[in-house]
Write a structure and sequence with these properties.
- It is a single chain.
- It contains 18 helices and 29 strands.
- Strands 13, 14, 15, 16, 18, 20, 21 and 24 form an eight-stranded mixed beta sheet that branches.
- A hairpin with a 2-residue loop joins strand 25 and strand 26.
- About 8% of the residues have low confidence.
C-alpha cells in the first residue's frame, strides 16, 4: 500500500551525475545574480519541481534575497523498490538479535558502493559536503544557497505571509525529469512548512494546601482519583506479566522529541516506579531550544512520553532522539533512528507524540516522513506508534468546520493510537469510554477536544485494514484512523518538581508502546519471535474469536464519529487486553510455522 504514485528502482550513477555536476560547477560564493550558470546538459530535459508550498505562500511578497553564502542543508530521499521492501518486511514477525544488515540491504534498495565511489572519484566533492545514508536511500547535502540556487536554476529569497518571514526558491527549481521520477522528496528547500505539534496537555492538582503541596512534591503518593502507573497496568492486565519477569527487558523504545527538556523532571518518577532500564538522549542536527518549542510548558511532552513507558515497562531502554522543531526535523530524526538501529540488538519500536493535520503539511513533508516510517517498519522491523491527535474529528484544531486527521498517524505503516477515558475499580478496569471533552470550547481545541480519528485524504485504505466495523457507511476507500486506543486522561505525571495530571493521545501512544514491549519480551522468551507493524494487530483481532484481544470501546464520540461494536473512528480496535493479545499472537506464530 502506498500513497498515490509509483515507486521503482533508479540508476544511482546517472542520478548523482545530474545532481552533483551543477553543484560542483557552482561552488563559488558572493552575489547570487553574479554566479556563473552551470552549462545545461542537453542529455536531460529539466522540468519544474513543485516543492509543495500552498499557493498563498508561493505568491507572498519577496522582502529580500537570501545571502549567497548562507549555509543550507537539504536531504534528497530516493524511492525504493516496493518488491524489495515487501520481501524485507516479511510477515510481521522477527527474531531478537537478528537486526537488518543495512550494508547488505543497501545494495538492493539504493545506489551501490561501487557506483558512488566512481561518482566521487570522477567528479570530486570537495566543494560540498555529501553524506550518503547507510541504506543508500538518503543523500544529505551541505552547501551554500548560492551554489544550490545555481544547481536548481533559481535563487533563494525571503517572503512574508501574515507576518511570517520564510525563505524559499524564487521560482520552482528546475530538475531533470528522470530525477523527479525517482525521488521521494527533497527537503530543506524552504522553512515555511509547519513544524510538528505536540499532543500533550496538563493540569495542576487544585486546590492544594501547604501540607498537601509538600507531600505532593516530596513523595510518590498521588491522589486516589488520579490514574497512576499501577492503575493502568492493572486495567490492561500487565500484572501477570510482571510476575513472570516480563517488564520490557531487551526492548528499546525510541522517542522522537522536538523540544528541550530537563532530565531532572523525570528522575523522581523513575525512582517511584523503580525504573531499571537505560535512558539516553541523542541530538540530531540543531538542538531543540525554547524559541522553537513555542510553549511555556516546554519539555512536558518528552517528560510524559518517558514516564508513561518507564511506569509500564520499567526494564525497557528509552532512547530520546531530539532535534530543533522545524518542518523537516521529524523526517531527519526518523531516518537517523533507522540508521542507528543496527547497533542495538534489542527488539525495537518507536513512540511518536508529534504530528500535524493532513491539511497543514506540504507534499515534501508527507513524502519524506512516509518513506521514513515505511523503512522503520519494513526494513528495521519496528512498530511505530503515533498519536491520532487530541482534537477529535477536527485534526486542524480549528472550530468544528473541517474534518481532518493527523499526519503521520495516517501513514499506512504507522499504528495510529486514539484515546480513552479509563475508570478503575482499584484492581482492574471498571469501564472505558471514548475520550471526549464534555464541554469543548468550539473556538479552540488546545489539545482537549478528544480522541482523533477519521478518514485520510492522503492514503488509500491498506489491504490489511479489515475486520468487524472497518467497512461502514462512512468508509470511502481511504485509510481509517485510529488503529487502537488507550488511556488518555487524568494520568499522573511528575513535572517541574510536583505531580500533575496529563491528558492526550500522547499518553496513550507510549502506553501502547510499553504494553507491546512487555508482550514482545514474553513472546521472544517463549517462542523466539516478536511481532511488529499495524497489520499484526488487525490479524490478532480477526483471530481472537469470542475472547477478544482488545477491549472494545462502544460508548462515546469524538465530536463527529460515534463509538460502536468492532472497529470505529474514535478508538479503532480498542485498548489492549494484554494477556489475551499475547495468547492470540502466540497462536499466530504456531500457525505460521505449520
Amino acid at each position: 500500500m502506498r500513497q498515490k504514485g509509483h515507486l521503482f528502482r533508479w540508476p544511482g550513477l546517472l542520478l548523482l551525475f545530474v545532481l552533483l555536476v551543477p553543484l560542483l560547477a557552482a561552488c563559488g560564493e558572493g552575489d547570487q545574480s553574479n554566479q556563473p550558470k552551470p552549462t545545461p546538459n542537453p542529455e536531460f530535459q529539466r522540468v519544474a519541481y513543485d516543492i509543495g508550498l500552498p499557493p498563498e505562500a508561493k505568491k507572498a511578497p519577496v522582502v529580500g534575497d537570501v545571502p549567497a553564502d548562507t549555509p543550507i542543508d537539504i536531504t534528497v530521499m530516493f524511492k525504493t523498490d516496493d518488491k524489495v521492501l515487501d520481501e524485507i518486511g516479511g510477515d510481521g514477525k522477527g527474531k531478537p538479535g537478528d537486526s537488518v544488515d543495512l550494508d547488505k540491504e543497501a545494495k538492493k534498495l539504493g545506489i551501490s558502493d561501487e557506483d558512488y565511489a566512481l561518482v566521487k572519484q570522477y567528479f570530486g566533492v570537495d566543494n560540498a559536503t555529501l553524506e550518503l545514508g547507510k541504506l543508500h536511500t538518503t543523500l544529505k547535502v551541505k552547501t551554500k544557497t548560492g551554489s544550490l540556487g545555481n544547481l536548481l536554476q533559481t535563487k533563494f529569497v525571503y517572503r512574508e505571509l501574515n507576518g511570517k518571514k520564510f525563505f524559499a526558491p524564487e521560482k520552482d527549481p528546475m530538475i531533470p525529469k528522470f530525477i523527479l521520477d525517482r525521488v521521494v522528496a527533497i527537503t530543506g528547500l524552504e522553512d515555511f512548512s509547519q513544524a510538528p505539534q505536540k499532543s500533550a496537555s496538563l493540569k495542576q492538582f487544585k486546590p492544594l494546601s501547604a501540607k498537601q503541596l509538600q507531600k505532593n512534591q516530596a513523595g510518590c503518593d498521588v491522589p486516589p482519583e488520579i490514574v497512576n502507573w499501577n492503575t493502568v497496568a492493572g486495567a490492561y492486565g500487565l500484572a501477570g506479566f510482571y510476575q513472570n519477569g516480563w517488564t520490557g527487558k531487551g526492548v528499546t523504545i525510541y522517542l522522537p522529541e522536538f523540544e528541550p527538556f530537563n532530565p531532572d523532571d523525570v528522575r523522581p518518577y523513575l525512582d517511584c516506579v523503580g525504573y531499571r532500564g537505560k535512558l539516553t538522549v541523542t541530538t540530531v542536527g540543531p538542538a531543540p531550544d525554547h524559541e522553537s518549542s513555542h510553549d511555556a510548558d516546554y519539555g512536558f511532552e518528552t517528560v510524559m512520553d518517558i514516564e508513561m513507558i518507564a511506569g509500564l515497562a520499567p526494564d525497557a531502554d528509552i532512547k530520546v532522539y531530539q532535534s530543533r522543531n522545524t518542518g523537516y526535523a521529524m523526517a531527519n530524526v526518523l531516518n537517523q533512528i533507522s540508521e542507528d538501529s543496527e547497533q542495538d540488538k534489542n527488539i525495537q519500536m518507536v513512540s511518536l507524540s508529534w504530528g500535524s493535520a493532513e491539511a497543514q503539511v506540504v507534499q515534501s513533508q508527507i513524502d519524506a516522513e512516509t518513506e521514513a516510517i515505511r523503512t522503520l517498519t519494513q526494513v528495521n522491523h519496528m512498530s511505530v506508534f503515533v498519536i491520532s491527535g487530541d482534537c477529535g474529528a477536527y485534526g486542524s484544531m480549528s472550530k468544528y468546520d473541517k474534518l481532518d486527521v493527523i499526519f503521520p498517524a495516517s501513514v499506512p505503516w504507522a499504528i495510529a493510537v486514539g484515546g480513552t477515558q479509563l475508570t478503575s475499580n482499584g484492581n482492574g478496569r471498571a469501564s472505558e469510554v471514548t475520550w471526549r471533552d464534555p464541554n469543548p470550547d468550539p473556538a479552540a481545541c488546545k489539545n482537549t477536544w478528544g480522541s482523533g480519528g477519521g478518514l485520510s485524504t492522503l492514503f488509500d485504505r491498506p489491504k490489511w485494514q479489515q475486520g468487524a466495523g472497518v467497512q461502514n457507511k462512512q468508509s470511502n476507500g481511504s485509510r481509517q484512523l485510529p488503529d487502537v486506543a488507550a488511556a488518555a486522561t487524568n494520568l499522573a505525571i511528575h513535572y517541574h518538581g510536583q505531580w500533575y495530571t496529563g491528558f492526550g493521545t500522547s499518553a496513550a501512544t507510549p502506553i501502547w508502546a510499553a504494553t507491546f514491549a512487555v508482550i514482545n519480551q514474553a513472546l521472544a522468551h517463549n517462542t523466539g519471535y516478536f511481532f511488529y507493524g499495524p497489520s499484526t494487530l488487525y490479524q490478532a483481532a480477526s483471530k481472537s474469536g469470542g475472547d477478544p484481544a482488545f477491549y472494545d470501546i462502544v460508548e462515546g464520540d469524538n465530536l463527529y464519529y460515534k463509538a460502536g461494536p468492532g472497529w470505529d473512528f474514535t478508538t479503532g480496535l480498542g485498548s489492549p487486553n494484554t494477556s489475551r493479545l499475547y495468547d492470540v499472537l502466540t497462536a499466530m506464530l504456531k500457525d505460521m510455522k505449520k
